[in-house]
Each structure stands twice: as C-alpha cells, then as structure tokens.
Amino acid sequence: MNVANNVSIIKQKIAEACEKSNRKAEDVQLIAVTKYVSIERAKQALDAGITNLGENRVEGLLYKKQVLQNKATWHFIGTLQSRKVKEIIDEVDYVHSLDRLSLAKEINKRSSRQVPCFVQVNVSGEESKHGLAPDEVERFIRNLEPYPNVQVVGLMTMAPHIEDESILRNCFKKLRVLKEHVEALELPYAPCHYLSMGMSNDFQIAVEEGATHIRLGTSLVGKEV
Ligand SMILES: *Cc1c(COP(=O)(O)O)cnc(C)c1O
User: Fold this and answer.
1) Quick check: helix, strand or coil at residue 36?
2) Global confidence as pTM
C-alpha cells in the first residue's frame, strides 16, 4: 500500500473523467475517508497532498483530528446521532449526512456558526440506506428555514454496491437533477451547489455525472483490520 501512489492514480482518473464530461478537475474535491485506517495512513495521505479527511464516527474524527493537529478540512460522513452533535459540531467543516429535522434542530442549537451540510438522499431506495426519498427533499429543505445555523451546501448519496454501470450512472444523474432543482429555488440558506457522490468503486462515473466531492476510502488509503 503506497498512499502517494494511489493519490496520483486517482488524480489521473479524475482528470480523465473530467475530460470526458467537459469539467475542470479543480471542481472536484477529493476526500480521503480514513475510517478503516490508522493515523499513520491518514498522515501519509496528508503528506501526499490530500487536504480533506472524512470519518463516519464521532470518536474516530475527534481522535484523528486531535492527533494530527493539522490544517485538514474535516468531513463527517456517517450517521450522526442527535445526542452526539454537541461533541462534534464545532470540530467539523462539513456534515454530509443531514437526513432529519430533529438533527437540523440540534445542529442549529449547538453550533455558534453556520454549518455547511449536505442533505443525504436515498436515491436507490434500498432499505439499508439512510437518507430522504428524492420526493421528500424539497419539502425537507423548505422546512429548514427556522434553523439559520444549518446551511444546505449540497446533496449527498451512496450508490448501491453493484457493478452495473448504467444503474450507478442513473443514480448519480438523479441526484444531479434534484440538486439543480433545489439550487433553482434560490433559498438563501440552501445554495445547494455541491454533489457529494462517488466512492472507491464508482467515483469515475460520479465525476462524469457532476460530483463535486468524492469520498474515497479503500482505493486511496486502503483498509486495515
Ligand atoms: C466508508 C464510506 C466511504 C468510502 O468507502 P470506500 O468504498 O472505501 O471508498 C464513502 N462514503 C461513506 C458515507 C462511507 O461510509
């Protein structure tokens, strides 16, 4: 496992996907998901030029952030329990998993600043996945108005864990169309310019379909334990 080598391979693939879809590589943020790996691997990612780190557990994020003491931008990508919001909300730069009003209410209450959040959408409709159904998203975002510390910067999804490229592409496309719909509402608290989609197995398709934030674990820093 050579993290620097992985980073250069992944950047090349991002560049290819951008070329194919007429996009600029600078418009794609690469988030290294370090939930499966040690501090050592996370350090290697930073040394290789990664600036965005993602964790799906409150404890994991707080621990890595403390030990690394660095200038990374921190993304919380996992299910966030309301009772843990107060521990983490001032430690993260982005929350990718806003999926219910009670969570918005808690973020609003516990944070002293506007928190950039992605609304998580369950595009594929799989029961195992968190997130709002696509047809609930507009109403949900309209209902966020009373919570000024919650800023909707974009939408996030996890595609099904399959190989079928047309199904994956369709899932990402649907999220993009929905993002454009919300963006067009021009709600002051929901600029919604971003799309957090694409993981190790599907990020090239996600980038071709407009991803602005891709979340890569296994293919970037590997998987330990
Ligand atoms: C674990 C995880 C990832 C990274 O998954 P890989 O397949 O290892 O790239 C991305 N997003 C979320 C929400 C995750 O939980």
Assistant:
1) coil
2) 0.97
